[in-house]
Specification:
This protein is an all-alpha fold. Helices cover 71% and strands 0% of the residues.
Length: 91
């Protein structure tokens, strides 16, 4: 669900675009967590729990950047899959 309503395909497109931009930013060498707050807010609009997990991993990005990005990518894939299921069930 997006902001408390069932998802539409445009919501999926928003999530896909936001995810791509977010991953590009966190892959930068000089990444600062404050730069991605708007992206995290968008993820939270879809699923607060998954967004919270992404935030937790971001706090560990300095320890194992590639491992953290891999885990975040999996969480984003899960979120996108959840949105697609919602679209299929309600549209």
């Amino acid at each position: 669900m997006y902001q408390g309503r069932h998802c539409q395909y445009t919501d999926y497109q928003l999530l896909e675009n936001t995810s791509q931009k977010f991953l590009q930013i966190i892959n930068l060498d000089n990444f600062v967590i404050n730069e991605v707050e708007k992206y995290l807010s968008t993820f939270s609009d879809f699923d607060f729990n998954l967004s919270s997990k992404i935030r937790i991993y971001l706090n560990k990005i300095d320890d194992d950047k590639s491992g953290v990005i891999n885990k975040i990518t999996h969480l984003l894939d899960e979120l996108k899959n959840n949105v697609l299921v919602d679209i299929r069930e309600h549209n």
